Amino acid sequence: MSEQSLQPGQKLHGFTLLDMTPLPELNARLIQLRHDRTGARMVHMETEDDNNLFGVGFHTTPMDSTGVAHILEHTVLCGSKNFPVRDPFFSMLKRSLNTFMNALTSSDWTLYPFASQNEKDFYNLMAIYLDAAFFPRLLDRDFRQEGHRLEFQEMDNPESPLEYKGVVYNEMKGAMADPSSLSHRRLSGALYPTTTYGKNSGGEPSDIPNLTWEELREFHATYYHPANAYFFTYGHLPLEKHLETIENLALRHFEAKPLDTAVPDEVRFEQPRKLTETFPADPGEPLENRTLVQTAWLTCPAADNFNRVALQVLSTLLLGNPAAPLYKALIESKLGQNLSPVTGYHDDNRETFFAVGLQGTEPEHTDKIEALILETLQEAADKGFPAERIEAAIHQLEFAHREVTGDQYPYALLLLMRLLGPWIHSGDPVTPLLLTRDLDRLRAEVAAGPFFQNLIRRYLLDNPHRVTLTLKPDPERKVREDKEVADNLQALAARLTPEQKQQIVEQAQELQEAQEMEEDLSILPTLELSDIPAEESPVSSREEKVEGVALSWFDQPTNGIVYFSAQSEAAHIPADLRPFVPLFCALLPQIGAAGLSYLEMAERMSAATGGIRASASILESPEAMDAPRTIVTVRGKALRRNQDKMFAILTDLFTAPDFSDLTRLHTVINQVKTSMENSIPGSGHTYAARLAASQLTAGGKLREEWTGISQVRFIKEIAAKKPAELSDLAAKMQTLAGLLLGNEGMRCALTAEGEAFDSVRPALAAFLQSLNKAPATPAGQNAFSPTSVRKGCAAAVPVSYVARIFRTGTYTQADAAPLMVLAKLLRANFLHREIREKGGAYGGLAGADPEAGLFSMLSYRDPQLTRTLKVYEQAVDWAVAGQYADEEIKEAILASFSDLDRPLSPSGKASREFNHQLQGLTLAMRQTFRQRLLAVDREALQRVAHVYLKQGWQGSSVAVVSGEEQLQKANAELGEAAFPIERI
């Protein structure tokens, strides 16, 4: 049946088609259906996009903080009725050409989404996901592995101390030590004290051990029923086959069930509230400027779509750029260093909330910060906003709605996130996608009277459901928590009978045996190498010179947006200025220019662009080791109607940037510092990897200097200076501007629909004509000599991030392909089992970067630092021995192509191809690499494992980011191999 012939009321495979809505802004049509017998809800977005997505979500509303929804999300993926193997989810990661696979737990829903461009693969994965969600085994041992369990430190010695283990337990220990994550959880707890949002759906480490296996199974039986299910599909595959598959594999086995998961209204406060919480701080770190203060209000229901849109615009008016009143008042107050991480409007919950505050402050500033917020809101309510600012804020929302993203996550997943909350809470998945209608009404309301002033009064100033949270550092907290856990475990151990001790030993042995057991994975669906596209899809461009500058034109379906990129070589930057390049990039879009202040420039950017960004990057040569190119890129994007204004802004930034406002420099530098500090708990493995690679390749050294721990320390040092002490820095920035902006080595790219090119050309040419095109003679580079490093970096984290990095070779060397396959093989068939399943870390990873010439083994949120170091040694021996099946090799090749062929947004495709052009990484080189991947066999894998990992062991580098206590404990065990410990 043609999808064009579908009609409301039609019956299809147990579903009734309810409605169809054209979505011209998204080049899609939305089809709503309902399953007749069970009441399951279904939405299909019909588009021409071949990156098809499936998701099934459940409205899950836990009323405690044991992490039941989160642990269940992990455990359902540990084997099911038709696929009774230990880990079908991770097994399918390597048997698939998926472009995305994951599972997500939010405060009131759990979602199981995947995406694939391959039809066979799509239905393979749908079979796995449906069986996992509706018919999981939920074995006790899987609950103990993924959630929590008691084990003796020496597994078979009941006289050794007891420990808590479990993947989610360790994941949440890491998450709850992160002030950014903690502030969101604690603020939710304060704003929603009587509903599910006040609980920690991820799980509080102190509460997780209270969850029983029986409670987990009961939660699944209650919530994972079609009556509580929300199915979503997207893409160019036909709807009918989706419905047939869902009906046959899942829904036909169920009957209707009365189920009420609605979240009640939060009990509204009669008076605003204040509370103070703490987060664990490293005892050796200074405590000054570490506190977060934020004020938040409960606002409108998510179902009230118009007011949701209005509050999004109001949030942009108040906070959207440095000239916005709340942003400006808070930052210029010097009461803190940056806006708090939860700042903004949040519409994920059934009742939405607005939050604003500062981080990098002191507890005693709480009252001043709250008073300043209220005073600024009162002033905004009294004065209102200029019409041009309102239009600029509406423009920002319109731009975000129109932009086709998807470089990090599938675009379809972002659309699903946009509609899921309103769909669950009000049964309306359509209205959140129809922005134009709400914006038209909004403009009419603004024209009719003081709309936003009234909105401020109604939802903020006159709303007593307000909370002010102070989150301050406590250097004793981790010690107290560790002692409390240790005391509880000691008391628990003292109460255990000999029989109970023996049971713990036996359960640990049973779990270990299950983890090590060879399984027959042939029951899982798979693909063949013949399913892999033989060739990479080329991204075409047209090259020419405009005003003497090399320009690449990319014709892409950008939905009316123009993307511009200017790349300048940075090889001529003197060595003493080189560490300042990333800071220059951070400052450039946030300063004044051409006689305008930073506030005036910020307003211009908000009104006419979707953002202007600058970044520093390293591009390695595909044919030569230790010959990287350093690049500074300035990017801008605008709706086609605003492209002239975008190029006028770029002209001012490139020709007359103004770094003379030292107070502004001080403010931005401190914002950069707090952002970097916030990133460490979530990206510790990345920092560890960059540190370990820093002396292995020339590119690795530069990357660590610009984006690693060295840069964090560098920024912290500059941030400690007073504004008056930054005149020398301002001079350096001005010098860098002269060296980097518009030099003769610059190349540009423009991405838009082809019909837009002629209209863009005049403004683009005027911009390029304005540039000074200064000479850019490369500075002499010293010959690079690789050496191994061994470093431990102490941070305020309760878990570890352990990296071992090996130097390999260039992209065009024949060994680059088998190394990439070896990384997939090691991760899926060894490190996942040893580090995650047995060790309890959140992740055990391996990666080969053929462009950087590096091979990595990493762990993420890892409770077993020294054990992981030994696992890496065992992993190398395992790889060299070659005792892996032909099927496992095939799966590793499939997984390599899953990464290689991951789809990008239209602008992302152009950006990647532009980098390849600059790098000299030709389509022919990439095609040769594909052919080499397909030809990888056991002999090649064993050889590269022996040459680069076994023989390269002594030359490899190790770096660990962890708490100081964990590092010292590890050093006591490591003896001569101990880590020199440095503080971040």
Explain how this protein is built.
By secondary structure, this protein is α+β, with helices and mostly antiparallel strands. 44% of the residues lie in helices and 19% in strands. It is built from 32 helices and 31 strands. The chain is globular. The termini are far apart. A hairpin with a 4-residue loop joins strand 7 (104-105) and strand 8 (110-116). Strands 1, 2, 3, 4, 5, 6, 7, 8 and 11 form a 9-stranded mixed β-sheet that branches. Helix 21 (662-693) runs antiparallel to helix 22.
Short description, anyone?
This protein is an alpha+beta fold.
Compile the SSE list and pairings.
Blueprint: E1 11-12, E2 15-23, E3 28-35, E4 41-46, E5 52-58, H1 68-75, H2 88-93, E6 98-101, E7 104-105, E8 110-116, H3 119-134, H4 140-146, E9 149-152, E10 162-165, H5 167-175, H6 179-191, H7 213-223, E11 229-235, H8 239-249, E12 273-280, E13 291-301, H9 305-319, H10 325-332, E14 338-339, E15 344-346, E16 351-361, H11 366-383, H12 387-402, H13 411-426, H14 435-448, H15 451-461, E17 466-474, H16 477-495, H17 498-516, E18 542-546, E19 549-555, E20 561-569, H18 581-587, E21 592-593, H19 598-608, E22 612-619, E23 629-639, H20 643-655, E24 657-658, H21 662-693, H22 698-707, H23 709-719, H24 727-740, E25 747-752, H25 757-770, E26 790-794, E27 801-807, H26 816-838, E28 843-849, E29 854-860, H27 865-881, H28 886-900, H29 906-919, H30 923-934, H31 938-950, E30 957-962, H32 964-974, E31 981-983
Parallel strand pairs: 4-11, 12-17, 19-25, 26-30, 26-31
Antiparallel strand pairs: 1-2, 2-3, 3-4, 5-8, 5-11, 6-8, 7-8, 9-10, 13-16, 13-17, 14-16, 15-16, 18-19, 20-23, 20-25, 21-24, 22-23, 27-29, 27-30, 28-29
